[in-house]
Automatic annotation (TrEMBL):
The keyword Oxidoreductase applies. It comes from Mycolicibacterium iranicum (Mycobacterium iranicum). Gene3D superfamilies: Acyl-CoA dehydrogenase/oxidase, N-terminal domain, Butyryl-CoA Dehydrogenase, subunit A, domain 3. Belongs to the acyl-CoA dehydrogenase family. It holds the Pfam family Acyl-CoA_dh_1. GO terms for molecular function: flavin adenine dinucleotide binding; medium-chain fatty acyl-CoA dehydrogenase activity. This is Acyl-CoA dehydrogenase.
Amino acid sequence: MTTPGVEPALAQMMDSVFAEHGADTDLWQRLDALGLVRLTGAEDDGGSGAGWPEASELLSAAVRHSVRIPVAEHDLLACWLLDAAGVGSDAAVRTVCVLDGDGRAAGVPWASQCDRIALVWPRGGGYAVADVSTDEVSIIQGLNMIDEPRDGVTADPTAHAGTDLDPMLVRQLRLKSALVRAIQICAALDRALELTIEHAASREQFGRPLAKFQAVQHQIADIAAEAALARSATESALAAATTDWSSPHLEFLVASARSCAGHAATVVVRNAHQVHGAIGTTREHRLHEYTRAALAWRSEFGSVRHWDARLTQMAMDAGPGGAWPLICP
């Protein structure tokens, strides 16, 4: 499914490069040559000047072909933040890390595989940011359930002068990070649905395809409904973010997207594996590449419980009669 607002030719090009070169060791260089590594960067700074709809399509294409690279962390998070703070960035591969008051951060995406880190830490009553080499911090390597680096980072903020960071940019960073994972989850759920439909249509039991059994039809219908709900909520947040990242209403939309995607993952993963049966649990079958990914990503940049709680709190804060305007502003 192509992201709304994206030229079909561009979407096809993105899909083709991952399909043909997803396993190549020089994939990052290929993406860079095509202007996809800094897709949303300003053209004056070497970027392609595209927006989040195009970035969403790029992320979705990578997920469809099970390509694991830090393109979102590099372009949409780290480089964006450094540019917005006036620090600037170069061609080095980056991720972003927000330290706590003790100078630590857990589960930092791709820290051990990147060249530099956009390091954010609390300072005074606000925040500071610095572009540091990974050699300047302590990294304890870790992995999520799909073997993507999720590392522990420890740094001494006093060793870096840092640049004062507008708290609004930190808020936007949190929302952008959460929306990135919602986009990726939706792509994984859509692909799980496709695989399940293909399996049910081709696999026979008792002399007829699985797709002819009403119970299987119900399971697939539930998968399709949950995946569609998650995508609808995510596309609503994406459309609003494309217009105004500083909108006070955006957090509600992102929280809705993450909540819907997180709960959808439960139904999609369960039903998809039930329809596939034993073959769906094997490493040779591709289903696990998408079901495990959806489960891994839904716990990052805020758990399902976290986003459910935020939705609940925002609805309560809106007061009597205020919930509907949150949904339809």
